[in-house]
Each structure stands twice: as C-alpha cells, then as structure tokens.
Amino acid sequence: LLCHAYDTLEDTPGHRLSGCSHIYGQGMWAPSLRYHEGRFYLSFSANDTHTTYLLTATDPAGPWEKRTIRGFYHDGSLLFDDDGRIYIAYGHRQLYLTELAPDLSGPMKGGLHRLLISDAGDADLGYEGTHLYKKDGLYYLFTCHMAAGARKTEDCFISSSLTGDFSGRCIIDDDMGYRDLGVAQGGMVDTPDGHWYLFMFQDRGAVGRSPVLLPMVFDGEGFPTLPDGRVPLKVSAGSTHPAHSYAPLNGDDDFLYAPDECGKIQLKPFWQFNHDPAAGLWSVTDRPGAYRIYSGKVCHSLALAQNTLTQRACAPESTAWVTVDGSGLGNGDYAGICALIGCYGAVAITREAGKYYLVMLSRPADNVSVGADPNYLEPAVEYGRIPMPSPLVTLKVHAVFSDVCDTALFSYRDHGDWRSIGIPQPLYFKLDHFTGCRFGLFLFSTRAAGGYADFMRFRYWN
Predict the structure, then answer these.
(1) How confident is the model at residue 240 (pLDDT cuts 50, 70, 90)?
(2) Which region, left, alpha or beta, applies to residue 128 given φ > 0 means left and ψ of -120 to 50 means alpha?
(3) With contact defined as beta carbons under 8 Å apart, do 322 and 456 qualify?
(4) Measuring CA to CA, how many Å separate 240 from each of 38, 54, 195, 248, 426?
(5) CB neighbours of 122 closer than 8 A, spacing ≥ 6?
(6) Which of these, 254, 253, 293, lies nearest to 270 by C-alpha position?
(7) Dihedral through CA 251, CA 451, CA 419, CA 364, nearest 10?
C-alpha cells in the first residue's frame, strides 16, 4: 500500500450510509492509471453518480487532486499519444474511442470519436475492461470477453492507426483449474530491463478478484503471447526496487494514535471504512488503545451500520480477532466482528434488558441471487445466543477460501480456549457487493441510537 488516492468521493446519502441508502456494487469501477510528462493520471467512472472522475498527482504517494471528465466512460482507459493528443477507450459489448480536450475536461470539439470493435448481441458479458496502449507504432486494445455460455477470456486487438481497423484474437483462455473462471481483464506492463508481463485478474470466489501476473512475449505478428500457452501457477519476477520496504496489505492494530500536524487522525493504511465514515461517531482518542464506534442511527442490518472498519480477507485462509468492550451498548445494540459480504456473517455482543449475550448472526446466503439487489432492510438471522457474565469478550472470525466452498467460522475466547458459536456461514462473490470478503468491526442499534462499543487489540493472521 502506498496511499489512498481519495478519502471520500462524493457527499451523498448513499456514500454516507444515511438512513437506508447505500452504494454497494456501485462507486468506483475499473480505474485506469497512466503516467505522462511528470504527472500521474487516475481515471474511473462511478456507477451511482454516473460520473467520470480524474485524479492527478506528481507523486503517486499523493496528494491527489480530483476533478471530473465530461461524459460517462465505462471501464475507460486513457492513452497519451506521441503527437500530444489524448484519448479514452471504453464501453461494454461495443468499445468506443473518444478524443479528449488537452485539459481532459471532456471530449475534444471536432475530435476523433469512433466505434473500435463490437461484439455479438447474444454475448453474456461481451467485451469490457478496456486497456489501450501504444508500442512501436502499434495500438494494442486489450479487453476481456465472455461469449454466451463460455467462461471469461482475454482478447487483444491491434492496429497501426486509431482510424484504421483493429484485428484481434483470444490471447488467454485458462482458468488455472479453478471453477472454470477465466483469467482476464487487464493489460501489459514492461520493466526497465525490458521484460514484459501481462497483468490480469481472476474471480476467486468469495475472496474476490485476485491479481495474476503472467510473463509474456510478442509473436511474429506483434500479439502478446504466453510462452507455454497456459497461465503458469507460479511466477518469479525480480524486484525493480530491491531496497524498498513494502507496506503490508493487512495487519494488527492496538489503536494507539495521535493527531498529525493538521489535527487529523491517520489510521494505518490497511484499514478502509465501509462507505464514508460518519464524523464525530468514531474515535481512537476518546479511549486510547481502542477504536470506539458511537451509534448514530437505528437500523436492523449490519450492512447499513455506519463506521464499520474493514480489512480485506486473504486466500487461502485468514483469521481476525478483536477484544470488544460492550459496556456502553444500549438495549438492542450489536457490536462485534464480521465477514462482510452480501451474505455476511458475524459474531457480536448484544444487550437485552440490561443483560449481555453473545450471538452469531448472518444474512442467509440463499436469499441472495447472483444479480439481485438485496433488501438490506431485512434483519439478520440469529443462529446462536449465549448469556455472558461480562460485556468484555474476545471474538474471532476465520475465513476459508477454496475451490470447493468459501466459508466463515465464528468463535469466542472462553478461559483461554476458542469455542465456536452459530453455523459455518457460506460466502459468495456476487454483484450485490461486487467486492471480496472483508473483516469488519461494527456496531448497529435496532431500537435507539446513542450507545457505543470499544474494539481493542485487533489481530490479523493468514
């Protein structure tokens, strides 16, 4: 992790999880990262605002400046051509090219605008995930493809001119032996010493989309080609920065923070809020050594809880545990740790008539179809409830990702031993969330706002 390019994208009810609003399955999609004449450009479209955004920086670690590009460019890919002209390739099933104004404010008046390639009308997914490059005078258009009844593949089209015809072929048709889910949707990158790689992803079940690095060569016609025709299960690539210390993608936290010179708290970069945080309803300074969430609204679904703090779960298995102090809970409040996905599961402490209970709750997986927009107003189902003598408890979620099934298991610490609670929760990657499973620290109130919970000594293992 180097930085987060933005903290918040827009201030809308959906982004804030205000009331019952949310933007699951929406927000930022398919960013395009380019470097040109000393500046980095990050462009993407957001499906909820139907807007194309552009972030720029001279240092990739930030700060990044945000603005918009007029028009909506699904899975857009920027190209800075040798003659100074700028283009964006984009689309779904039909892939287009539009010339942009020099300041990237929108389409160039009188500039080039054309259809590059078009897929058959009966395709399941068709072409999307566009990546456009130029190398040695040739233009390379990468796109994933899914024909009717087939798995996802990667195609590449080549032309000597942006006004000429693009001819192409399938360059990757391989699932690495995993559920017939193809490796696709990416582009190519070269290293300073002249080696070329394809950089793709593969849908890997509930863990989400996993990056795949593939060594490549160019054949006699200039097409990217896998040396052995198959996606290798292991790849060795030398570091271009051997002295650099890479920040971890996940990690532990004892929540000991102090404000920076601007008076702002900067959480460790592996944390991400689920939706925009509600200011004033979370703190790591009110109780040093604890992440505190205050309840600011009433809801019956973990998915609508504000200030849920998350980290990405990792394959093949990963575990997170945290100590929760629920002494500040109100009746009907739930606070704990979850496997956050459309069919989420969680273990939490709750309060009822002044007494504390430990519960395992989940959103049943069979209620969520592949393309459904789930009803997050539905309350979770409890699959276990245990009376607790104290509001202080350590809770754990263990996620297992395999080619057979993806499952989350929940437990609590009892006199030094871990004891399971509830059911193994099936996990699925679906269009409802459209992100992989994440571990999350949460609080939500089902009766009245105003309670709070403290989370301490978070640990992550994989």
Answers:
(1) confident
(2) beta
(3) yes
(4) 19, 28, 11, 18, 40
(5) 148
(6) 253
(7) -90
Q: 166-196: buried (b, 16+ CB within 10 Å) or exposed (e) per residue?
A: bebeebbbbbbebeebbbbbbbbeeeeeeee
Q: Is 14 helix (H, G, I), strand (E, B) or coil?
A: helix
pLDDT above 70: residue 94: yes
Write the DSSP symbol of residue 195: -
Q: What is the DSSP letter of 379?
A: P
Helix/strand/coil (H/E/C) assignment for every residue in 74-131: CCCEEEECCCCCEEEEEEECEEEEEEECCCCCCECCCCCEEEEEECCCCCCCEEEEEE
Written as one string, the DSSP assignment of 247-291 is PPSS--B-------TTS-----TT-EESSS--TTSEESTTTTT-E
Residues 218, 226: Cα–Cα separation, whole Å: 9
Mean pLDDT to the nearest integer, 57-71: 97
| Structure-token pair, residue 145 | 């493809």
Q: Is the pTM of this model over 0.90?
A: yes
**Is 208 within 8 Å of 311 (Cβ atoms)?**
no
Distances (CA, A) of 368 to 342, 379, 424, 432, 452: 7, 14, 17, 8, 30
Distance (Å) of CA 45 to CA 29, 51, 72, 77, 275:
6, 6, 7, 11, 17
Which regions of 342-437 does DSSP assign to beta strands (E)? 345-352, 355-362, 381-388, 392-401, 406-414, 417-420, 425-426
Tens of pLDDT, residues 361-412: 999 876 555 444 567 778 889 999 999 999 999 999 999 998 888 999 999 9
